Amino acid sequence: MLVDDDPTSRLTLQTVLKAGGYNVDSAASAAEAVGKLDAGEYELVLSDLEMESPDSGLKVISHARMKDYKPATALLTTYQVARPAPPKSQNFLLIKPEDIPELLSKVAYLISDRATRRMERELRLAAS
User: Fold this and answer.
1) Is a pLDDT exceeding 60 seen at residue 80?
2) What is this structure's pTM?
C-alpha cells in the first residue's frame, strides 16, 4: 500500500511501482490507510512521513506494525530540508523516492525481508 496525501506524488510513485512489477493499492490520508489496513492484508506499507499532520505517517506505520500479518513498512519523504527524523527506537526506514532504481531496490529488499521473517516465524511455530 502506498499512502500519500499529494495526488501527484501518489500517482507518480504508484506508476513507478506498477512499472516495477508490483500491485499497488493507495490511500490519500492516514485515516484511509488505517481503514484499508484493517480491511485487507498488505506485504508492504509505504507512507509519506508528513501528511495531514506532522506525525500522520508515523501513525500509519505504527498501525501497520500492530497487524497480525506483519507487513514490511517504510516512510517516504521528498523533503530536501531538515525535518524531524522518526524516533530511532522505532527502527523506521526512511526512503527518498527521487532515485527510482534505489526506491525499487529498497522495496524489493523490504518485501524479501518480510517473506524471510514470515518463513522463520512459521518454522519456529512448527518446531514448538
Assistant:
1) no
2) 0.81
